[in-house]
């Protein structure tokens, strides 16, 4: 089923300090509710690159850009970033607007 979406998506690419992957995953899981507990957050996902050693991607969806930016400037966000910073050697962020969404046959919804 196809549908029009208006979500604001954030994609973070993080390169980790070698050997810190398991610690990073534990720290991410321990603090994930900081993001998902935000009223404007629609969900988030942590993925590990299948092609690049020590590279992770974090995707989070938000109701709109303004509410994401509000969270991005908050003390909660800064503290969450400080928690994950020791594991990161570099990273980047890309933002986008979801235009359409289509569930796959295996989705089960």
Summarize the structure.
With 109 residues, this protein is α+β, with helices and mostly antiparallel strands.
CATH class assignment: Alpha Beta
* CATH architectural name: 2-Layer Sandwich
- CATH fold title: Alpha-Beta Plaits
Rg is 15 Å
Measured distance between first and last alpha carbons: 10 Å
Give the total of domains.
1
Q: Estimate the mean pLDDT confidence.
A: 93
Number of strands: 6
GO molecular function: monooxygenase activity
Protein name: Antibiotic biosynthesis monooxygenase
Domain ABM: 8-96
Keywords: Monooxygenase, Oxidoreductase
How would you portray this structure in words?
- The protein is of the alpha+beta class and 109 residues long.
- It has a single domain (2-96), classed as Alpha-Beta Plaits, CATH 3.30.70.
- It contains three helices and six strands, in the order E-E-H-E-E-H-H-E-E.
- The protein has helices spanning 21-36, 65-72, 75-84, and strands at residues 2-4, 8-16, 41-48, 55-62, 88-97, 100-102.
- Strands 3-4-2-5 form a four-stranded antiparallel beta sheet. The chain has a two-stranded antiparallel sheet with strand order 1-6.
- Helix 1 (21-36) packs antiparallel against helix 3 (75-84).
- The protein starts with a strand and ends in a 7-residue tail after the last strand.
- The model has no long low-confidence stretch (mean pLDDT 93).
